[in-house]
Each structure stands twice: as C-alpha cells, then as structure tokens.
Amino acid sequence: MLIVRRVHESDLDPLFELIQKSEYGLTTLKISKDELESRIEKSVFAFRQKSGKPSGQPYVFVMEDLNNGKIVGTCSIYSKIGGYEPMYSYEIKESHHNSEELGVYKTIQVLHLRELHNGPTEIGSLFLSPDYWGGGHGRLLSLARFLFMAEFKSRFEKEVVAEMRGVVDQEGRSPLWAALGSHFFQIDFPKAETLTSQSKKFIADLMPRHPIYIPLLPDDAQEVIGMVHQNTRPALTVLEKEGFKFSQLVDIFDGGPTLHCNLEEIRAVEESVAGTVQSIEKEVKDGKQQLVSNASLDFKACLGDTHWNQDQVTIDQVTALRLGLRLGDRIRCVSMQPKK
Question: 121-130, 169-178, 242-251: lowest mean pLDDT where?
C-alpha cells in the first residue's frame, strides 16, 4: 500500500538514507544531510502557508509504503527557478552556412549558453528505491504532484519544466563533461555535480560564453546531447505522455534534455476533476481505479476506487482511511493513463 504525501521534518533520516542510493546525474539529490534538512524546513513552511506566489519555494513529497512504514521514493516541485542564482542551460540552435561558389549549403547545430533569471516552475528530484521499480510505482510518484499543482495553481508559474538526467556511467563519467566542461572547470563530473547544489557562481565565473559548434566535439559527446540516462527513460516516457516536449535546452554538464509544458496543458492537470465525497463504501460498485488526493495543503494521494455522479463521488473505505477523508470533504482525481 503506497501513499504519496508532503514531507515531514521527521522524514529527514529515512529520506537522507534513501537518496544515498541515487546515482550520478541526479544533481538535486547529491546534497548533504544539512542541506536536505534545510530543504525540508523550507518545504514544511511552504506547505503551511495558506497562500503563496511562486518565489522559489520547494515542495517536497515522499512515497511511503504503509505496509512497513518505509520512505521508498521522493519528488519535488520548485515553484520558480532563476532569481539570484540563475538557471544555466545550453540552447541548441542552427547556424546556416553556404557558398554559391562551391555549391555548399550546411546547417550546423550550435550550443548557446542561456542564463535564465525569471524562470518557470520546475519539477524534479524524483527518485524511487530500486526495490520498487516497476509496477507503475514511478508513474504514481510522478503524477501525484500534478494533482497538487492542479489544486493550488496560483503557487506555480504558467510554464513547467523538467531537467532530465543525461548520460553518465556508473563511475560518474559524462562524455559531454569530458569533452567540454572539464577543460574549463578542471574538476571531475561528480565534484561539479555536488558544487551546483551549494552555489552556481562558479558556472558564471568559468563557463565559456561563446557558442560551441557541436560537430567539433568528439563523437561520444555529440551522441549524448539531448539524450537521457537509461534509468531515466521510464520517467521521460511518463512526462511525454503528460504533454511535456523537448525545449531545445540541455544541461551544461551531462547534456540531458529539458522538457517543458504549460501547467494548464499537463494531462493530469487538464483531465483531473474535483468534487465532494458523497459516500464511503467497503466496495465501490461500478467503480474505476484512479489516482485520488485530498484537496488539503497536508497533501496525500494514493490509488483508489471511485464512482462519480457529476461532482459527487463515492470512494472505498481503504482510500478514505489512507487519505483521512470524511463525508463532505473535497477531493481531486485523475486516471493514471491518458484518455486517448
């Protein structure tokens, strides 16, 4: 029995233990215990605010296995990126060259450094314990946060992005970093990854500002630009089905793609419906399984059986117990798979 809920301060130790299992390339999880504690504190404060505009607050979620009480997954929403510490990316653009004399016409892809201060909302920091891979658990973890965003839209920007993990091997080697970043920073990829969680000033100090012609890079570096790590492919598939598309932005370190979608156009946001609990039954007749959440800042979500009658809904007892729902409470639901 899995539930996705907002993080609590008491989750610090088990959550830190969980993210120690994360692999290279999951930059936002390569943090110290003190940094995690600070992120949790900021998240707890953000959830407690009755209203709020997007100003960079982190909303941290955990997945808990109620059978054993273990924290088995996590994900986050960063209400706004940029600001004092901008977001750095490479934008892939095309450069056109031609010579009528030689009859040569070439279109060459070029990386342009982009510095974004007034940024969108970002979803990220998604990690699921390897023991729970498969069975739709990753999809459940990923989609649950969209129900929170659908219920509290004013807390987020109109555009939502997701920086996907690029290609990095088990030893922490990134082909793009080896070909490009390492020459300017003179540190290895794992060290650079750790530093970005503390400060991004070194990026502004050392990153080359001139365009990088992709054909001049080694073949292995060219091949990974815009590609995701093999363990990130399921997460990529989930987001693409939710309406996210490649933004032509890639990570400056590992070349992983940045996806984007308008908040209102995210499938789980657009198709979600809200209503009032009319009845709680042991078994829901003619019910269908949906992702169900409360409509509270003390957010909780899980799979449950529902039957809708306009804006009134019948739910099963187990779901009501997991989410702490009573008759008359407002809930929000969405199907796990797109209608089409």
Answer: 169-178
Fold for domain 273-334? Barwin-like endoglucanases (2.40.40)
Residues whose CB falls within 8 Å of the CB of residue 224, separated by 6 or more in sequence, listed in order:
166, 167, 174, 175, 176, 254, 255
Do residues 120 and 56 touch, judged by C-beta distance below 8 A?
no
Q: Architecture of 2-90+114-268 per CATH? A: 3-Layer(aba) Sandwich (3.40)
Q: Which of 8, 210, 229, 260 is catalytic?
A: 229
pLDDT bucket at 197, cuts 50 / 70 / 90: low
Position 191 pLDDT exceeds 80: no
Task: Provide the angle, in degrees to the nearest 10, between the axes of the packed helices 33-48 and 12-19.
Answer: 120
Residue 300 burial (CB < 10 Å; 0-12/13-18/19+)? buried
Residue 8 annotated in active site = no
Tell me the C-alpha distance between 221 and 179, whole Å: 6
Task: Look up residue 323 and give its two tokens.
Answer: 């989410």
C-alpha distances out from residue 89 to 20, 116, 168, 226, Å: 26, 8, 17, 12
pTM of full prediction above 0.85:
yes
Extents of the domains making up the chain: 2-90+114-268, 273-334
Residues sharing a CB contact under 8 Å with residue 201, sequence separation 6 or more, in sequence order: 85
* pLDDT grade for 198, boundaries at 50, 70 and 90: low
What mean pLDDT, rounded, does the chain reach?
A: 91
Cα separation, 45 vs 39, in Å, equals 10
